Amino acid sequence: MTRKTQHLRHAARTTFDNLRAEALFASRLQPADQPSAGQVQDVVTSTLRKLGIRGCAAHMAGEFGDHPETAADRMKWAQATIRTTYPTRPATPALILRPVPATAS
């Protein structure tokens, strides 16, 4: 795998994780609920459907503006929860290209 491919995979993973964390942040789920992975996945999906990507980001921005002291802790919880709920898949090994043997003409 090339460095560029690794970077693109990391960027995509990070982007999806960030979107999911924003949706979890915007949801009604609380750390004290100790949600299961299935509950987290369900609430992330339903919150994204309900609010959309921009709505989740707007909700999060509002909370950081109104309650920065609690919003930072909630976002740390959301990010950690997303990382454990959606674990990284092992990278697929790159195909090994071998030269085709020359045929006799």
Can you characterise this structure?
This protein has 105 residues and is mostly helical. The chain starts with a helix and ends in a 20-residue tail after the last helix.
Number of strands: 0
Element-by-element helix/strand order: HHH
Strand content: under 5%
Briefly note the structural class of the backbone: mainly alpha
Question: What would the keywords be for this entry?
Answer:
single chain; 105 residues; mainly alpha; 3 helices; 0% strand; elongated
Write the layout of secondary structure elements.
Layout (H helix, E strand, L loop, with lengths): L2 H24 L10 H30 L1 H18 L20
Helix pairs in contact: 1-2, 1-3, 2-3
Summarize this, please?
This protein has 105 residues and is mainly α. Helix content is 69%, strand content 0%. α2 runs antiparallel to α3.
